[in-house]
Amino acid sequence: MLAVADESLAGRNVTPAGRTALDIALILLVAGAMIAICARGPCNTYAYAQAWNAGTGMGILERGDWLLPRDQMGRVPRKPPLLAWAEAAVLSVVPVRDDFVFRVPTILAGLATAVLVYLFGRRWFDRRTGLLAACLWLVGLHMGKQLYLVTTDMLLTLWITASIFSADRLLFNRTSAPGRTKWLIGLWASMILAALSKGWGIVSVPVVGGFVALASALEPGFGELGGLGLGARLAGAARLVPRRWGAAIRRVGLGWGLLAMVAVLGALLGGQLLRGGQELRDVMNFEIVQRATGGGDSPPSPSHGPRVLNLIYFALPGSVFAIGAVILGSRRMVRPLCWAAAVVVPFLLTHGFRSDYLLPAYGAVALMGGWAVEELVRRGANRGRAASAVRHMMAAAPVVIGLGLAGASLAYLLRGHMPQSWQRLLPMPIWTQPETWYVVSGLVAVGAATLGLAVFTSLAWRIHALAWVTIISMLGVHYFASNILSRHAVQPDGEIIRAFSMRARSIMGRDSFAVTGIRQLGCELYIGRFGRTDSAGQPFVSARQVDLSDAAWLIVADRGLLDLGAAEADPNGDYKAYKAGRYRTTPQDLGQVVLASAPVRDRDFGRVYLIRLRRPLRLSGQASQPSLQPDDE
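The chain above was modelled as a monomer; its predicted structure follows.
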């Protein structure tokens, strides 16, 4: 496909700039398809800490505090403020409050990272490698989630990739003094932005520093030591590597760069600590110290599984192609391997770990995969055993994808005709878009076509076509995973919350409202403003506080009724409000229930109610639980 396109473009005298523009247009087309698939999937804004991140951005607009923004629950942020600033900037110019708008910073960061991966491929290899690498990066198994989340990971990935891009230019390309100044500014500006995205530099400095250390030591090779014995080689390398590190330190301006980082980050963090006090110190202790060491009162759960296997799994199918690059072997793999190692190795030493942390390494994996495709094409007739083995391994990726798509889609379409024991293995999604099952029917044909094309292109040694079959078929995988298999399709709490909140927004208009027990769900994000809180900015936790406020409406969940004394809890703290129906009062006792949601199953929140408050609130109760009046102590 790429070869035919290149010949066609050559015949039309398309300039290199024109080819680059066409490449980027194709990358944006693949990215657009991925984002559209994610956007058509079920809402999950309440999950993965997204409601906190989007809420912190809205908190800037609500409270006007750009130094230490707080979310809808009044909490100090867990992450540095760059994402919150970006959220606030988007929300200040876009009047809509919905999922896509909340994700604009992540989407833009993903698009920019894909273009950087393409530019890496052009610089290190050639244009076609860059194009394949960018598309393999976009359709990777983990990207179906990462491209469309309100989290800091994609921003961090963008700035780490930009830092490595600038460092690579400074280390391995001769540039004039003005050019070096430009890349130095780019390196340290992106390093500061990475630190402001996540980790305050504790993540980005070891990763970028590790790449600089490994690449500067290994990329030039050790050919000058080739005629020596083993001992002399080791001694020579021990003298040579420190000299290379010294030269690399000078080229990347380490001293001045770190000084600039400390000045910017120190001033900002110092101001936040002055404003946030012990509350912010406790958050940073959990996020940094306990996550790294596993110590403290409530450390995060320890990580499981080898980091390299996590990387291979979540970067599929590009990682399969990248393994082929390692088998084929080339000194040109040194830099991408150094990049991947610089991301993986630091997390071997930490207690807390999630697969999201490896996102900055996916670009290196994709670049290796793109090179492997081009290398097989280049070898042509001189294939050899290694090339044949890699070709079979690459073909296995679309073959498995095709079998899985066709088989899984067909199984769900025929689920109603299966025994009950089989049906239980195939949980049906409760929430789907109207066209979902038509698309799933089409995926049966897509899977069969993928299988046939994979076999044909592999046997015909049409490796470019094989790669594009893999890339296109992964779009089907992401659609099926998002709309059929995902937890949010099977248990559509996010859609319940979103539908309720947007309906409540239209009912309340600009009237004031209070909230109790729903702030973790992110309802206020869709309403577009925060509910009433006490003088300290904390949520109301008693009927008296609600009654004394000027709120016209109350939004409360069954679980939140416990805070108002309106539902029964057993001595162990298990919530029975909507499970058993044993209420001391009902939501109707608070006022007129205008709107109620379906039950939100996550953490037993129950139904969410929009209540038009009456004054005063009169909560009837048992003898041991007197009714609450506005003048009660």
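The longest strand covers residues 591-596.
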